Amino acid sequence: MPDNGPDSADDLARAVEACLFAAEEPLTREQISAHLGDADVKDALAFLQEHYAKRGIHLVERGKRWSFQTAPDLAHILRREKDQLRRLSRAATEVLAIIAYHEPVSRAEIEAIRGVQTSGGTLDVLMEAGWVRVAGRREVPGRPVIYATTPEFLSHFGLESRKDLPGLAELKASGLLDPVDDAYEDLMEEKAAAKAEAQEDAATDGQEDAWDEAEAPEDESRAVTLENPEESA
């Protein structure tokens, strides 16, 4: 391919299409551009996404990576007669949800939210599935490892970005709150209640201090009157 890339918008769209079709894994916009002589491929991707919107395959963006995938309404045609499903344990599901909503997060932080210890095997399962990755280390004493989700996680769950994660109300409405979990909601409510109680106590203490200061001069005056009756006269 010439260094200058495709000459026209149609040629560029075709080149982007070919590049994505031949790729072994999803590509970022920058990677596609580099393959095509640093051409600006933003408009070409938008055109192809619209072009394929009503076809048997769709052009999708997941975690800022682009790829072709089967149209959701046709997925059942390509399923095998016997699906091999990998079911996550309750613990793995909870850990995955915590990482997705709080990333990057350390193992200690995961345990603080769950209220129980998290085995290394649970994290290993999620990393083996390709949904969780090591995202570095926290710059604190001990430098604990921190974890985050992967583009494969977004792709598997049909999310363009983490902004598309369902909120608590949506989880309740869809019946998916368990096991993501009532305990998590209770923990959040307990934290909110504790914070409100602490603020109320602080406000009460401040008000009592103000009352004490306001009453102090009167108390001192009475003390002088009782101890020095002649002066008060």
TrEMBL record:
UniProt GO BP: cell division; chromosome separation
Biased composition (Acidic residues): 199-218
Region annotation (Disordered) ranges: 191-233
Superkingdom in the source lineage: Bacteria
Keyword Cell cycle applies: yes
InterPro entries membership: ScpB_csome_segregation, WH-like_DNA-bd_sf, WH_DNA-bd_sf
UniProt keyword terms in alphabetical order: Cell cycle, Cell division, Chromosome partition, Cytoplasm
Name of the protein in its database record: SMC-Scp complex subunit ScpB
Organism per entry: Aurantiacibacter zhengii
